[in-house]
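Before relying on records like the one below, remember that each one covers exactly one chain. Contacts with other chains, cofactors or solvent are not represented anywhere in the record.
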Amino acid sequence: MRVSEELDALSTMALNPFAFLVVPRTLAMMIMLPCLTVMSDFLGILGGAILAVTTLKIPFIAYYNETVTALVMADFLTGLFKSLVFGFIIVMIGAYQGFNVEGGAEGVGKSTTASVVSSIFLIILADLIFTALFYSTF
């Protein structure tokens, strides 16, 4: 949007580009990423059950009992919290790169790549920090 001067057009219309573009995306990501996390958790457990029953010949009730025993609500809530933070990181990095892009189509490509690489790095770093905070044994 910086390249095609759409940010300047929003400012000319007395609209705050950050509030108009970034805030809705942040809210959407912070709502949908936890939803995707819940869906992925459920599908992972379901996939494990299908594999256990069909391939390993483990009775479904045994798989279910062991899964319920192994799962702790704190792990589920930690995953939801982490997905909120990861969504925020993704949006903020994307917005920063998008607001500061220069150089036409080539600059957009480089900015997109930088956004993806930075997001992946910061998510791994945040995950390391959360793991140290939530699961430390000292």
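Residues 24 and 46 are 33 Å apart (CA to CA).
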